[in-house]
């Protein structure tokens, strides 16, 4: 395809081909280098940007709290203890004692169900100690009494069939999920803004580099063209002198 071209035209075509191939190779290598640098840049943003770290921590915390709503209807272990002392003057000290000491302990399970019933199953232990009683009236001044207890509470109006309990549970779960999605979106926005800033800077640098390379190539072409014209003028001068 180059046979019909003169030497000067063939040299120009070859120069353009070499410049184009060199430019494409340089762009490919530059893209690979930018990809590597871009990953490092995002890692720096994730590790050093306080806004991203804060939103990520809040999103992780909200995700861990999603199951917190289920705790409203989960069984709970409870323990209650009470102590009391009565030293008031009694009408019949022989039977009531001059001083009374009371203890009450409860240990068991409680649960607010999703259908409205509140249940308690526990063991109740009472201790009563009387001081100053007459054995004829009170043969056992210190007594322990223990028994299992089951309590069921069923609302008849406000929380009938557990409507309020389920509503509070669903509202808390929805609020936690909304917080998680919001903070996750904030993290993605921060990364997107960082990515946009990186590529704007990368394109500006690439544009500057291309303009510099284009200017150098134009200078090279102009110099090459001037050199060819000088050679042509020398050849013409030599030819005229030879003819004369």
Task: Note down, in words, how this protein is organized.
By secondary structure, this protein is an alpha+beta fold. Among the domains are: 1-34; 74-175, no CATH class. The protein is 58% helix and 21% strand. The protein has 4 helices and 4 strands. A 4-stranded antiparallel beta sheet has the order 1-2-3-4, with no helix packed on it. Helix 1 (7-48) runs antiparallel to helix 4 (163-243) and helix 2 (50-64) packs antiparallel against helix 4.
Supply database-style keywords:
rod-shaped; 244 residues; alpha+beta; disordered N terminus
Give a summary of the structure in a few sentences.
This protein has four helices and four strands, in the order ααβαβββα. The chain has 244 residues and is of the alpha+beta class. Among the domains are: 1-34; 74-175, no CATH class.
Span between termini: 39 Å
Low-confidence stretches: 1-36
Mean pLDDT: 75
* Largest beta-sheet characterization: 4 strands, antiparallel
Helix/strand order: HHEHEEEH
Identify the strand order in the major beta sheet.
1-2-3-4
| Helix run count | 4
Radius of gyration: 46 Å
Helical proportion, percent range: 55-70%
CA-based shape: rod-shaped
Strand tally, please?
4
Structural class: alpha+beta
Residue share in β-strands: 15-25%
